[in-house]
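[User] Once you have settled down, look closely at the record that follows, and write a paragraph about the fold.
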Amino acid sequence: MYSDKHPCKGISLYPLLFLVAAFLLHGCRSPQTTTVGKQEKSPVPQTTQPLTIKDTNAARIMQQLRDNSIHFSELTARLKTKVSSPELNQSFTTNIRWKKGEKIWLSMSIIGIEGARVLITRDSIQIMDKINNRYILKPIDYIREKTFVQLSFDDIEQLLLGQMLFAEAAEVSYAANATNHTLSFDGGRFLSHLIFDKSSTHLSGQYITDKMYMQTLSSQYQNYQPQLGKQFPMDRELKMSSGVSTFEMIAKFQSIEIKENLEYPFYINPAFTIEK
C-alpha cells in the first residue's frame, strides 16, 4: 500500500503503457482514431493486399528495412521516456523483457520506484497498477481504445523490431531529393509517407494522416547504433494529434541485450481492485 507521501501518488500511469508498447519503435499501421469528445471506432480493414513495388529503388529500400530486423528468442531492453499531453507531463524509466512470439513484459518506474507493470500476450493485456492498487485484465484489442492504432500481438512485435505494417495501400510510390528517399502509401483513407536518409537509407521519419477524421501521427528516428548485429535507432520521437489534443513522447534506449531463461514476474496483490 502506498502512503500519501509516495512520490508517484496521484499519477495515473497505466494509459501510457499501451503507448509505450505500441509506439516505442518503428512503424505504424492504419490509425484507429476517435472524434474529439466522442469515442468512435474506425472500421478495420477486412483484407491485406500485397504491396506492388514497381520502382527498383523503392523495392531495394523496403528489402533493406526488412533485412535490418533483429533475430532472437528472448531479450531485455531499458529506456528513458518523456511524455507530454494535456493531462500529463512525466518522465519515467521502462524495462522490457520479451519472449519472441509469446509475451512482452514491461516495468515502468519514476525516480527508481516501480509504479506499474504490464504483461502483453497473444490475446490479452494485464496491467498491475501499483499506484492505484488495481489489476486490469483486457483483451489485446484494448490497445485500440487507448491509442490511434489497431494492433495484434504479432503487429506489436513487428513494431518493436522496426518493421513496417501497411495494409491499406496496394501500391507504393517513390520520390527522392538531395537528402532523402520518400515512399508514399495512399490507401484512400490513410495517407502515409516514409522518409529515409539518402546516405544511410535508415528510416528517419514517418507521417500518417487519417483523411476521414483529419488526425495525424508522426514519428522520427535518430541515433542509429549497432545493436545485436543490426542498425537500431536508439532515439525516437512520436507526436499524435486529434483536433485540439496532442500527445508527444520522446524515448531514448539505453541498452538492448539478448538473454535466456528470463523471468516474467507478475504477482497480483490480493488487496488490489480487479477490473476487466
User: Anything to note?
Assistant: Residues 26 and 122 are 20 Å apart (CA to CA). Confidence is low (pLDDT under 50) at residues 1-49.
